[in-house]
Amino acid sequence: MRSPMTETPATPTLSFREGATTALPLAVAVGLFGVSFGVLSASGGGIGALPAVVMSVTTFAGSAQFAAAAIVAAGGQPIAAIAAALMLNARYVPIGVSVARFLPGGPLRRFLLAQLVIDESWAIASKGDGEFDGHRLIGAGILLWLAWVGGTVVGVIGREALGDPAVLGLDAAFPALFLALLIQQLPSRTAVAAAILGGVITLALTPVAPVGVPISAAAAAALLGLARR
Amino acid sequence: MSDAWLIVAVVGIGTMLIKASGPVLLGGRRLPPRAAAVVALLAPALLAALVVSASVGSDSQLVADARLIGVGAAVLMLALRAPILLVVVVAAATAALARVAGIP
Questions:
Q1: Cβ-based burial of B75 (10 A; exposed 0-12, middle 13-18, buried ≥19)
Q2: Which end of chain B is flanked by fewer CB atoms within 10 Å, N or C?
Q3: What is the pLDDT of residues A53-98, one digit of tens each?
Q4: Cross-chain Cβ contact B3/A78 below 8 Å
C-alpha cells in the first residue's frame, strides 16, 4: 500500500504564507485602490454602491473595473463598459494557461482558484522559466482579494472623507513592482527579447488601441518562443 | 435589470470564464514543448507590458508624470540590489514627493 508520506508535502502551507507575506505591502495599495473604486462607483452617475461591491467580489480585476466604472460615470453605453472591461481581462487567458498545471484539485476547485489570479498574485507566484508556485498564488490572491473587496466596501461607505491614492504615490508602486519582478524573469536572451518586444508593442499601441488591448497584444511577443532554440 | 447590474453580471461572468479557461480546460496536463516555450515567454512579455502601461499609460494616452519619476527611483534601487519591498516603497514615496513638488 502506498504511503501518503512518501513525498513530504512540506511546501504548500509555507508557500501559501510566503505568498501572503510577499503580497502584504501590495495589499495595502490594492486596498486603497479598492477604496477609490468604491468612491468612484458610489458617486453621482456611477454604477452604485451595491453593484460596486458585487463587482469587486466577482470580477476581482482592478483595471477592468475602473475602466467600466469610468465609462459609466462618463455617460458611456453599457456595451462600451462591458467591451472595455472584458478586453482588459483578455490577458487572463494566456496568464491562466501559464499557471494551469500549478493549480491543485479538480475542475470545480480549479475554476474557483483561477479567480484568485490577478497580475499581482500571478507575478508573485512566478518562479521564472515558466514555473509557478500555485500555493504562493493562492496565498497572495486571497489576501489581495480581501483587500480589494474590503477597500471597495470602505470606499462606498465613506466616499466623502477619503482622498486620492495618487497623492501617496501608490500608482507608482505597481510599475515598480512589475519591473522588480520582470528583472527576475530574464534567464535567457530570448526572454529579454520577449520583454523588450512586449514593452514596445504596448508603447506603440497605447495611443491607438482601446484601453487594455495593448497589454493583451504584448502576449504576442511570447511567439518568439517558436523560433529555433 | 438596470444598466449597472447588467454590466456587473456580464463582466463578472465573462471574467470568471476567461480566468478559468486555462486551468479548467488544460487541467494538470503539460503543454507540448513548443507551446511551453511560448508560455515561458508570456511572463517577461506581459510583465514588460504592465511596466510600460503602469508607468506611462493613462486611458489611451502616453503621459510622463510623477509615476515615471517613481519608476526611475525604482530602477536606481534595483541597480543597488535593494529588496523588492524597499524598491516599491521608495518608488511610491518618490512619486508622492514629486507630486508635492507640483509634478502631476
A1: middle
A2: N
A3: 999 999 999 878 987 887 787 777 888 889 888 877 888 888 898 8
A4: yes
Tell me whether residues A60 and B15 touch, CB distance under 8 A. yes
Query: Which secondary structure element, helix H or strand E, spans residue B58, and what is its range?
Result: strand B57-58
* Interatomic CA distance for residues B86 and B88, integer angstroms: 5
Å between B68 CA and nearest CA of chain A: 7
Cell reading at A76: 458611456
Contact with chain B for residue A55, Cβ under 8 A: yes
Q: A46 by DSSP, 3-state: which?
A: coil
List the one residue out of A51, A63, A26, A40 whose CA is nearest residue A155.
A40
Whether A168 and chain B come into contact, CB under 8 Å, resolves to: yes
pLDDT at position A10, please? 45
Give the chain B residue nearest A195 (alpha carbons). Answer: B45
**Grid cell for residue A116:** 484568485
DSSP string, B88-99: HHHHHHHHHHHH
Nearest Cα neighbor of B88 from A181, A142, A136 is: A181
Q: What is the DSSP letter of A43?
A: S
Farthest CA pair distance, chain B: 55
Whether residues B45 and A89 touch (CB distance < 8 A) is answered with: no
Q: Which pLDDT band holds residue B86 (cuts at 50, 70, 90)?
A: confident
Please give the backbone phi and psi of residue A127, each rounded to the nearest 5 degrees, phi first.
-105, 5
pTM to 2 decimal places: 0.72
β-strands B61-62, B57-58 pairing: antiparallel
Rounded Cα–Cα distance for residues B46 and B68 (Å)? 19
| Cβ proximity of A39 and A48 under 8 Å | no
Biggest alpha carbon–alpha carbon distance for chain A: 66
B63 Cα to chain A: minimum distance (Å): 10
Contact A125, A137 (CB under 8 A): yes
- What is the C-alpha to C-alpha distance for residues A160 and A141, in angstroms, rounded to an integer? 29
Place of cell 500549478: A102
Whole-complex ipTM? 0.84
